[in-house]
Design a protein that fits this description.
This protein is of the alpha+beta class. Helices cover about 30% and strands about 20% of the residues.
């Protein structure tokens, strides 16, 4: 049976490795409630979103200054990890990779300069890095036509590419490092290799979504959810 504590432990183990291996600059503590596992924000009263449109620089800085993230990566990008659990199963998750809006001089971060201060140095439009956030969502209750229970969103809130199942936190991190930081992924291959065996739920994709382009991986039909 899946519990908030078991999910918290899974997330903590992944974040601990990333910190110890210096694959992230900083990881927030984990907040665990009766039904939710997420980050422990520096300012719990801060609103999560400042805009309903595409995420922008203001939104990114809002997340950074209020600690609304699970980890800061070496280049200033963010990971946001949230799971919802009820009745012994995963009922929802939000696993997001938020690229830093600029290609930062990482040496400034290495010297201990605060991320928000370093980002504020970049004001020239030529410094902007046009990189889209990548988010894996799962919401069993919201599933319907055009809204797969498990899906990946890129570039637009209307983009929902069906996924075969909810996603384990290690598989999410494996995906991000394999595709966006391959040098680190190769250097820590034994750690990331474990992702292929880690599952948090059963197959969720319906036939109408399976007939369309979708993301699939090996999921045991009897995996505990």
């Amino acid at each position: 049976m899946t519990t908030t504590r078991s999910i918290r432990d899974e997330v903590q183990n992944v974040l601990d490795y990333l910190v110890d291996a210096e694959l992230v600059r900083y990881a927030n503590g984990i907040s665990m409630g009766a039904r939710r596992v997420t980050w422990h924000a520096h300012n719990p009263a801060a609103e999560f979103m400042t805009t309903r449109l595409h995420a922008n620089l203001e939104q990114y800085l809002h997340w950074v200054t209020n600690g609304i993230y699970s980890a800061i990566l070496r280049d200033g990008s963010l990971l946001q990890i949230t799971y919802e659990i009820a009745n012994g199963r995963i009922t929802g998750h939000r696993l997001a990779y938020i690229p830093c809006p600029f290609l930062l001089d990482e040496s400034l971060l290495d010297e201990g300069e605060p991320l928000a201060d370093v980002v504020s140095l970049y004001g020239d439009i030529r410094d902007v890095a046009l990189r889209s956030p990548v988010r894996f969502d799962y919401d069993f209750a919201a599933a319907g036509p055009g809204h797969p229970a498990a899906h990946m969103t890129i570039n637009s809130v209307d983009c929902r590419i069906a996924c075969i199942a909810p996603m384990h936190v290690l598989r999410f991190v494996d995906f991000i490092y394999q595709h966006f930081y391959p040098q680190y992924w190769r250097a820590h291959a034994p750690f990331f290799a474990e992702a292929v065996w880690r599952h948090v739920g059963q197959l969720e994709i319906v036939d109408s979504d399976r007939r369309m382009l979708h993301l699939a991986w090996d999921v045991h039909a009897t995996a505990a959810g």
